[in-house]
Specification:
The protein has 1 helix and 10 strands. The protein has 180 residues and is mostly beta strands.
């Protein structure tokens, strides 16, 4: 019985620590995914028949308050009416991907930014930093409408490998400091 109460106290402590931490993912809440997307890189290859462009070498993407850096980026687009031009549908980034907002930085091996669904998915050893708080996992999905971020222990959303901790999510959160 005593071990059950200790376990309950530990669970409550963890919930309080998480609640005290800043809301991971909230910095991207209501991100303007309608803003223009600026891309720069060392090289571009346009594959017009496939409706895509491949950027490589020191790729930098900027959209409103969002920055994405990677070694390679594939942009999937649809050709719109002459007055609308090309409409970007999706960005697939690979090679040491970093996504930054004003208060958060996320790193992983791959990222998919689906502009139609207003969702960013990061895969492969994902690390999310907000101030001194940090969450690690195999996969993270950020909903840009709500700012909700979900981190899984593996890259496929279930038990598995990818974090170096047996497919589990780990976190370290700051707590309010009081005078001693």
């Amino acid at each position: 019985m005593k071990s059950r109460s200790l376990l309950s106290a530990a669970a409550i402590g963890l919930v309080l620590a998480v609640a005290a931490a800043p809301a991971i993912g909230q910095a991207l809440r209501n991100h303007d995914s309608n803003a223009p997307v600026d891309v720069e890189a060392d090289r571009i290859e346009v594959q017009d028949r496939a409706d895509r462009a491949v950027f490589s070498g020191n790729v930098k993407v900027r959209q409103a308050g969002l920055a994405l850096d990677a070694a390679r980026l594939t942009v999937a687009y649809a050709g719109g009416a002459a007055s609308q031009g090309i409409q970007i549908q999706r960005l697939d980034a690979s090679g040491g991907v970093t996504v930054r907002s004003a208060s958060e930085t996320a790193r992983g091996e791959f990222a998919i930014y689906d502009l139609n669904r207003r969702q960013i998915t990061m895969l492969g050893g994902v690390v999310l930093d907000q101030g001194a708080s940090q969450v690690r996992g195999g996969r993270m999905v950020i909903d840009l409408d709500s700012g909700r971020a979900v981190v899984d222990g593996s890259s496929v959303g279930g038990a598995g490998v990818g974090t170096g901790t047996g497919g589990r999510v780990t976190g370290r959160f700051t707590v309010p400091q009081r005078a001693k």
